[in-house]
Amino acid sequence: MPPVFRSLIYVPADKPRALAKARDLAADAIIVDLEDAVSPDSKEDAREALREALAEPFSAPVIVRINGLASEWATEDLLAALAARPEGLLIPKVESAADLERVADALDQADALDRISLWAMIETPKALLNLADIAASSERLPLKGVVLGLNDLAKETGVRPAQDRGAFLPWMMSVIAAARAYGLVAIDGVLNDFGDDARLEAECEQARALGFDGKSLIHPRQIGTANRVFAPSAEEIAEAETIVAAFARPEHAGKGAIGLEGRMVERLHLHVAESLLARARAIADRDPA
């Protein structure tokens, strides 16, 4: 089954109670954050809380976001993460494939290259310019996905965010193109106003329409919306099942295109339908009734 990453929620590593609550959240992945959510004077406490929290299992995969590689905290963060043995590492401020290679070298030296995946945050102008090389590094490194950081991109570029995120659309589509070219998971950025349910719904719908697999979140109340919007609807599942069944008929064996309910359906539509059904099955396994 393909992995499911509809919802990835950030949890501050220096908040033990929040970490305890995160253990059973319905998010598809938990991002334990050592970076932005933790003040400089709490970094060491956060690393210790991370080690203690990950000593017990979580209901979802755990990804640790370390501080940027150029920061004074990155080395200690990486050592703490290696000791905690998460499923993944989220690297902020990635600007080139070389940044990921540095982390991969450290994982290799710790014999962790085959058990910890890498995730790259795309949140600087240089990252946008180097998207192809960053994504292509997945052919030699355990890069699993990219996470869009629109807040930082807005800060670094001077773009003024609007509710429709229109100014960001070219960058969002560039991320999708790079991710799809190399089979990576693509995750939309956060909505800081966690009380605005309508805007969250709109951003999730927009991101899914653009091709994103899921959304990064900052509050548990956002999880249900992301999980619902990024899952195939009952109508989509029924349509996909109809397409698969039609191509499975003996009279359609080997055909590249068939007529179905007054329209032409090609093999590419069959592949899309099969992928959607596989995703639906994976979600059903993740969210048993």
Keywords:
two-stranded antiparallel sheet; eight-stranded parallel barrel; 289 residues; alpha/beta; 12 helices; 10 strands
Explain how this protein is built.
With 289 residues, the chain is an alpha/beta fold. The protein is built from twelve helices and ten strands. The protein has an eight-stranded parallel barrel, surrounded by five helices. A two-stranded antiparallel sheet has the order 9-10. Strand 1 (7-12), helix 1 (16-22) and strand 2 (29-33) form a beta-alpha-beta unit. Helix 2 packs parallel to helix 3 (74-84). It is globular, with a radius of gyration of 20 Å. It starts with 6 loop residues before the first strand and ends with a helix. The relative contact order is 0.12.
Please give the radius of gyration in angstroms: 20 Å
Number of helices: 12
What general outline do the C-alpha atoms trace?
globular
Structural class: alpha/beta
Strand order of the largest sheet: 1-2-3-4-5-6-7-8
Low-confidence stretches: none
